C-alpha cells in the first residue's frame, strides 16, 4: 500500500501537466480540396502552426483549458471554434472554410474597341497579382472581365490606381 501511494504521488504531477496534441484537416467548403499554408493557432496561448500541403495540422504542447481555435487563410473567411482540452489528445472532424468574396466599389464601363496596349496588359498583371495574391489558391482565381478595369499610373510616385 505504501509503494502504491508513493507511485501515485510520483505520477500525479505528470498527469496534471500533460501536454496535449490537437490534430485536424482543413478543406475548402466548395470543392473539398485541402487548404495549404493557412495559419492555425489557439488564441490566448503561444500554440500555433501552419497547415501542411494536405491540409492537415498538429498543435503540440497544449495545456488543459478552454481555447478559441483560429484558422485564417487569404481568400477564405476566418474560422473560430471553441476547444475544450481536458487531458486527452484531440482529433477534430475535418473543418471546411468558406471562400471569401470581395466586392469592388465602382466599375466604370466604356464602350468601343481598344487597340493592343502593352502597358495595360502589364497593369492587369500587376493588378491581378496584388488584388488576388500569390498563393496557390490565388493562382486558381481569374478576373473574368479585365476589360472593364481602368488604370491610372503616376510615374512620380510609382503608384497605380485601378477602378
From TrEMBL:
Q: Which residues form a coiled coil?
A: none
Q: Which residues form the signal peptide?
A: 1-18
Instruction: Output this protein's name.
Output: Carboxypeptidase-like regulatory domain-containing protein
Keywords from UniProt, A to Z, are:
Signal
One Pfam entry for this protein is CarbopepD_reg_2
Top-level taxon in the UniProt lineage: Bacteria
InterPro entries hit by this protein: CarboxyPept-like_regulatory
Amino acid at each position: 500500500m505504501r509503494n502504491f501511494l508513493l507511485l501515485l504521488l510520483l505520477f500525479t504531477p505528470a498527469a496534471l501537466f500533460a501536454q496535449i496534441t490537437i490534430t485536424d484537416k482543413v478543406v475548402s467548403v466548395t470543392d473539398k480540396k485541402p487548404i495549404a499554408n493557412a495559419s492555425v493557432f489557439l488564441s490566448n496561448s503561444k500554440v500555433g502552426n501552419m497547415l501542411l500541403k494536405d491540409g492537415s495540422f498538429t498543435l503540440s504542447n497544449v495545456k488543459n483549458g478552454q481555447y478559441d481555435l483560429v484558422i485564417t487563410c487569404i481568400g477564405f473567411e476566418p474560422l473560430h471554434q471553441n476547444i475544450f482540452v481536458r487531458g486527452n489528445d484531440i482529433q477534430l472532424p475535418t473543418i471546411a472554410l468558406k471562400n471569401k468574396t470581395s466586392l469592388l466599389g465602382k466599375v466604370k464601363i466604356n464602350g468601343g474597341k481598344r487597340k493592343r496596349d502593352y502597358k495595360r496588359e502589364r497593369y492587369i498583371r500587376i493588378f491581378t497579382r496584388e488584388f488576388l495574391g500569390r498563393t496557390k489558391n490565388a493562382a486558381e482565381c481569374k478576373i473574368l472581365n479585365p476589360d472593364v478595369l481602368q488604370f491610372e499610373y503616376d510615374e512620380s510616385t510609382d503608384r497605380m490606381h485601378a477602378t
